[in-house]
Amino acid sequence: MSSTTSQQQSTKAISIDARGPRFSAGITVVLLSTALITHSAWVLLAQAIVFAIGSFRGPQFTPYALIFRTFVRPRLKGEVPTEDVRPPQFAQTVGLLFALVGLAGAVAHLPLVFTIAVSFALAAAFLNAAFNFCLGCEIYLLLLRLK
Amino acid sequence: MGKTTTVKSLAPILIVLVLASIYGFWYQNTRGKVRSAKSTKNGLNEAILGEPLGSRGTLVQFSSAFCTPCRATRVLIENVVKDLADIKHIEIDAETHLDLVRALDIRSTPTTLFLNSVGVEVGRAIGAPKREQITSAIDSLR
Questions:
Q1: How many structural domains comprise chain A?
Q2: If I label A27, which of A118, B40, B72, B132 is the partner at 20 to 30 A Cα–Cα?
Q3: Model-level pTM?
Q4: ipTM of the complex
Q5: In a domain, A83, yes or no
Q6: Does A14 reach chain B within 8 Å, measured CB to CB?
């Protein structure tokens, strides 16, 4: 009916199981909490690698998604809710940026930079896991408006 | 000293989880609610929106690429308005209409504006509205 609708349909966006990214966000919360409490750059590095895979290849290719597919999805019942892969992929990119800032803080011996960067990434992952928060919905347009 | 270090490093995570929870509950409570608009600006029209308005009212939905609930919102609104000849649904890609987005102060997607018959915004829902929220907002359009 509307022109936007036909444009979106013609791009044929990839759809994935909507429960996967939320499950992955839960594991991300555990990793980032560990990094924050122990001030471990190695734990943050591991999470940064996961973010990088999710950002460049897609959230359905991360080790967390593999855990979801192998152990969690077979136990879930009911209709599979699907969603466009682009919003969670965007969130992975934002997570990667915060992780890189945190790692830079660790390398430069700036613990406050590490703490703040990991805190923001943790807040976003926690909101996603606990409240089904859509990061792309809330910040993408604001970023575009800054231009 | 060991104890102080532990407390120091537990403080950030507690602050993050408490603040994020407060925001999360606010987020869940406000998304989708239709708030009546106090806008006294001139109405929107076909020249701005690219499509004609509905004779009784129009729902203008702003969507973006990185938005999970936009598709569900579109499907739901189209389903609600398909039997209403005098109400129209227009979906606008926020990214390619940034001037309009700024003029209307759209901050997140989906944001749905409820326009009356002359195109004046009378209500606004930020986030995905529920079916009852859409129908009751449409009922008050004239």
A1: 1
A2: B72
A3: 0.88
A4: 0.86
A5: yes
A6: no
Contact status of B118 with chain A (Cβ, < 8 Å): no
In this prediction, residue A121 has a pLDDT band, given cuts at 50, 70 and 90, of very high
Choose, out of A29, A84, A112, A141, the residue to mutate when testing the contact with B (most B CBs < 10 Å): A141
> Using CA atoms in the order B62, A87, A10, A66, what is the torsion angle rounded to 10 degrees?
-160
Q: How far apart are CA A141 and CA B108, in angstroms?
A: 6
Q: How many residues appear in chain A? A: 147
Number of domains in chain B: 2
B10 touches chain A (CB under 8 A): yes
Contacts of B64 in chain A (CB under 8 A): 136-137, 140-141
What one-letter code names the amino acid at B76? Answer: L
Domain that holds residue B82: 32-139
Q: Are B119 and B53 in contact (CB under 8 A)?
A: yes
- Helix axes of A111-131 and A86-107: crossing angle, nearest 10 degrees: 160
Is the pLDDT at B87 greater than 80? The verdict is yes
B8 pLDDT tier (thresholds 50, 70, 90): low
First CA to last CA across chain A, in angstroms?
30
Report the C-alpha dihedral over residues A67, A69, A75, A77, rounded to 10 degrees. 140
* Range of lowest pLDDT (A36-40, B7-11, B124-128): B7-11
Q: What secondary structure letter does DSSP report for B108? A: S
Query: Is B71 found in the same domain as B112?
Result: yes
Which residues in chain B have their CB less than 8 angstroms from residue A118's CB?
12
Helix, strand, coil percent values for chain A (each to nearest 5): 80, 5, 20
Q: Are residues B4 and B52 in the same domain?
A: no
Encoding tokens for residue A118? 């990991």
**Per-chain mean pLDDT for chain A:** 91
Give yes or no for residue A79 having a pLDDT over 50.
yes
